[in-house]
């Protein structure tokens, strides 16, 4: 299987690449500068400059793009729109590293975490931008996308336990009442989804 990881130099991207390589996949890092991941191949190009031809040879494209500043937050939507435009009508699957703020508080799917009173104010702009991007992605029926939301506590330094659990649209906690997952275990879930492709045009969530 051939996998392209956009944003392969990021904390999540590097671990996703490492997991892909460890599992025998052929990974290509899509980066703007020097590659710092374990990918066997490198495509040096800005996400917004990618073309249909650039991604045509892959089975799966994993989008680990990140934007944090107020000026760049709209790029969560514009980057996904660009990727959808060049993957539309193809068999290439698009897997997206998502956010937890768009998870719903209960099965009525009426209220997202980002809209609850206790949601941390400093994270609200990012969560709103990512929720908007997901809302726009849901409208695409011409792209084989899957959106993977991590737990509320998404730990870049957390241990790789080798286990995780999948949930759906609703915010879920473990037996300890915690919503937690390490980047390393999230990477396992991402590569499992890349290999299995069981959640086409769905949002799923990952926790430990």
Automatic annotation (TrEMBL):
GO molecular function ontology, one term from the record: oxidoreductase activity, acting on the CH-NH group of donors, NAD or NADP as acceptor
Superkingdom per UniProt: Bacteria
Ranges where the NAD(P)-binding domain occurs: 7-190
Pfam families assigned: NAD_binding_10
Stored InterPro entries: NAD(P)-bd_dom, NAD(P)-bd_dom_sf, Polyketide_Oxido-like
TM annotation in the entry: none
Name used for this protein in its record: NADH-flavin reductase
Species of origin: Avibacterium gallinarum
